[in-house]
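Justification of computing resources. Each target in the renewal requires a structure prediction run like the one illustrated here; the chain below, 564 residues long, is used simply to show the kind of job we budget for.
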Amino acid sequence: MDIAAIYRRWLNRAIDDADLIDELKALDSERDFAALKDRFYRDLEFGTGGLRGKLGAGSNRMNIYVVRRATQGLCNYLSGSGLPRSVAISYDSRVKSELFARETARVMAANGVTAYLYPRLEPTPALSWAVRYYHCGAGVCITASHNPAVYNGYKVYGGDGCQITPDAAAAVQREILDLDAFDDPKLISLEEGLFSGRIRWIGEDCLEAYLDAVRAQSLSDGRPLDLKVVYTPLNGSGLECVTKILRRIGIRDVAVVPEQEKPDGNFPTCPYPNPEIREAMECGLQLCEKLRPDLLLGTDPDCDRMGAAVPDGDGYALISGNEMGVLLLDYICRRRLESGTMPPHPVAVTTIVSTDMADAVAARYGVELRRVLTGFKYIGEQIGLLEAAGEAERFILGFEESYGYLSGSHVRDKDAVNASMLACEMTAWYRAQGLTLADRLRELYAEFGCWRNDLRSFAFEGADGMAKMASIMESLRAHPPVKLAGSAVTGMADYLTGVGAAPNLPRSDVLEFRTEASKVLIRPSGTEPKLKIYLSSRSESMEQATENNRRILDDLSATYFPNH
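Resulting structure tokens:
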């Protein structure tokens, strides 16, 4: 691979975006080969999450040429698939998101594919809804979810509203590999596309129908909720839909965090706009100290993840993704049984990395709990299977530990608009009983035991990052741990070979180790150059469970990645 030659070609051909021109010229003057290599040593890979990467010039970056090439590949895939030749497109607040969405629409239209384009930024679940509303063959959401501001992405959905399957992603990738980023994508102007009808704005009827579908998942009695809420969209796309749904359930006292209210892809208050991280919620927590609300809500930039904090003692306690999942499962079961709306043979779905406490809660209410691989598309797939069997009403909740929740079959992806509504209703219901969510969580721990769940990520940047992660996974397979935190490893599952794993799950590069009271799962991230370690321990006290997770992580780090 002649990286210098590839760079020269980009320098000569990448002329449609002034930012890229300046960037490429600066690289020419800097003569930094390491920087050139990182940008051009490979094409940004199209996987089950579509594309995700740092913004900038180069084949290993997110830019209009990579987007055009991916869109042409998707068009070619649609042409041979027999799927409807129409695509819904949305985007979030990130830098270049609107540009990439319009470039996607231009390529689609040039290929005779009708492009339904949201006229303004909207949440990812609203894209999943639009795909099915317009009976499209696919959907594209321009977002990098909760990644730092230097990232953007291109997330692809199937006609069922789920993110595309691994087989479909592989088929699209094969189409992309045959294309040249500069010569092959077809293109017409946005104006020509709108005039011809091949590009169409998504109407307010679609968005209102989505909000109606979310409202239909309400478990309240229809009376306005007397609740005080602080909300932060983290400078993302959630403001419109979240505030609208809260008004629809009768909440009038909603204070939006001013520093994080308006869309801003630079995310000036938090370098990592992820409600899983305390730093991202800090502005909201500070406002809580002044306003003393019943609940703090935060949604990530594309509004598919929801974080929360609740009053606890003199301050506010953040609720983890696993804790919120367990709280919602318990609440939904209690309310449905109370109101007589629990379906026969109810089903909840979560992932293999989510807390085992969910199994105990599900068993308490007679709910079948299904576990799937990491990624909400697999939860959406289970909804689709139930729907195909004429049993969609059996689905009562899907959740993953990474702050994703869905209580209905209206969309096939995690939905922070839906989750925000449910969190408010749940808070109001327990408040009427003199309880906070923190109080209810303590009751659940007293009943089922204290479960501590932790996630640690180790970053492996650069051209050799993927190779390093692969080497660690190979070492774990060849020489698995026999003890963790002083306890014998009693079980191991390799989801790549299927050994020890549930037979119905697709193959995935994940390892699981269990001791009597703990489990740990290790997997390379599918969207970031990170190795993720999921730790879970059950004990009589939260302090003991936390210490056990710490010792497990120390053991793994010392043996398998001591220098990282």
